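TOPIC: backbone geometry
CONTENTS: sequence, structure tokens:
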Amino acid sequence: MSPLKILSGAVVCILKRYQRLYYGMLQPLSIKGQATQTGEYLFMPEDVMIPSIYIITQEGEKLLSQRIEVSLDNWPRDSRYPQGSFIQSLDDVEDKGTVFQLEPNFPHQKFSQEVIDCLPQLPWVITEQDLLLRKDFRELAICSIDAPGTKVFDDALHCRKLENGNYELGVHISDVSHFLKRGTAVDREAAMRGASVNLENHMILMLPKMLTTNLCSLKENAERFAFSVIWEMTEGAEILSSSFLKSVIKSKAALTHSEAQLRIDDKSLDDEVTISLRLLDELAKLLKKQRIDNGEKSTMVEEFMLLANISVAKRILQAFPDSAVLKTKPEKFNFEPLIKAGLSKGFKIKVNSREELFESLSAAVLPENPQFNKMLRIIATQCMAQSLYVVSGLVSVSEYFHHGLVVPIYTHFTSPIRRYPDVIVHRLLAVAIGAEDPYPSLLDKNKTQVLCKELNQKLALTDLYQHIFSKGKAVEGHVLFIQENALQVLLPRFSLVSTFYLQSVTSSDGEAIFAYDEEGPTLSAAGITIRQFDPVTIQLHIDKTNVQHQKKSRKLIKNLMLEFNVPPLIEQSSSALEQQSPKQPPLKKQKTTEGDTED
């Protein structure tokens, strides 16, 4: 047998270094106990794997007690320490509303000039040459349907009846990849960020604002580039054909869900947008009946976004069997927590089949507690494995199945303004239909798999920061699970499930502070008992006990005046307290996303 051949190479030169920023505190520089010249300091990074960094700054005295941000510039051969530059102070993080800066690896900086230079010049107009390369849908009754206050419109819809009696249905998604040329500074920055993070009073964008809220946003009465999925359907919502086109659209209306419903219900209206909405509504209801659902209710828009994602997944897999980017959710069920939760309120949740699960979940309704059914559905989703981005050629065909949505194949195509995986899918689809030329890295399954793993991690981190944004914020919640040393609480306002660990389960003399009843389950203290599904109030804040290592923290302020600690989502905590974990694994946070019922 011949020896294994291993390819090898040598680094010829480094064209450009990645400038990572570091977080920590300053201390005066001294050599053998003697102070050095004024302005010299050592920066002590929070990351213990990073060496101390030599800094010269005239602001050092006032920065000594603050957390700061520093760049590493170079490391001279004759220097014990690398050299860096002071960037900014992170003091009073809460007052600035930038709690996301507590995570060193989370991108939050302003877009660089190099990124800004990649953007089109304003005013931007669609040319005759552009129209020659795209399908012109500007005359269609296209509209968007979003939540109130939405400023970013990345999807729009239309439906019309054809002369043969069938229906033409279109989903139009912002053509972000037209502006995001591969390999450019703006493309690299978007890939590094991975996704936009929508905080209550602040938004960390994946793309510069010019693209996010202007050129890529399918605003009312604005001509925009789109990537369109068009189906021909029968009156029974049977799909006869699918096509994928680069297009130009002009949205006729930007509606909220309630505004769209009012148009559908108002029989006196017969304009083209209202007629389109009524057709969309009818087809959405038929599609829902055809699709085996996992129990999650979906809006009309979500139903068509699901259909678009499924159709695109099939098309890119057909074109690229080894390099299609898919979203999967493995079949890994543990329904014991769901069954127990249902029984606590007198409902028997059946899990022998998807149909039984759907029916029993739909029947589990408490009129006096509207949140109960939502909590059960979240528990049902969490009894399944986490969904991930994968590359088709590196997993088996059986692993394509998305068990959360109960569909054999799925991807993310419909949110390219705020999610980088969708950009990759857009590029694959563009090559598949001949609108763009292929390039090696796009079809390299191993490189794409590395990118998918990075994006899976970044999007998990993004979920964490969706709700950490303010000091002293009190929010209402409901208890989902109770364990001997922890509670899991649903915060409906953020569609978030968080785990709260008790700081101390026993007193100094060894007596139990809490009485835990596994049968209930209940947790009692000081004459107060917490039961599953009880309402509670949670206060979000930042623990600044250790300035160098500030932590996201919560306080349960009702029903019990007790402190709880939340370990980081990804980092492993080292304290004895945070190493305690409940018997039930912590639930993954749920994020509601307009246009996607499940991420």
Remarks:
- Residues 92-102, 292-297, 560-599 have pLDDT under 50 and may be disordered.
- Residues 114-332+384-467 form one domain.
- The CA atoms of residues 21 and 299 lie 42 Å apart.
- Residues 445-465 form the longest helix (21 residues).
